[in-house]
Write the structure tokens for this entry.
Amino acid sequence: MVDRIPDGLAVSQLRLGDVELLVLHHPVAVAPDSPLEQLTPRQREVALLALDGSSNADIARKCSVHARVVAKHLAAAYRRLGVGSRAELAALLAGAGPDGGPAR
């Protein structure tokens, strides 16, 4: 069990069979007025990796999850943002800056 999470880190809970893991990671920073703010931290991470051109299999390897989990996170992100594909997600964020907020 983690008694204290170091400043600047977030914790994610993963289950692999009968084993439960707590993983410390750096959270993805997002501007407060970004559409990405509507997503959970994991949905945001997966969506940003998808926008970078990573396949579901690549994202799964990077996040240590199964590709089906990645697909579920993307589907949930699409629903929350009202888009239906990576292309629509990219179009939604096209005017955004690097942190997902408005371009300056």
Remarks:
- Residues 30-92 form a domain with the Arc Repressor Mutant, subunit A fold (CATH 1.10.10.10).
- The helical segments are 41-51, 56-63, 67-81, 86-92.
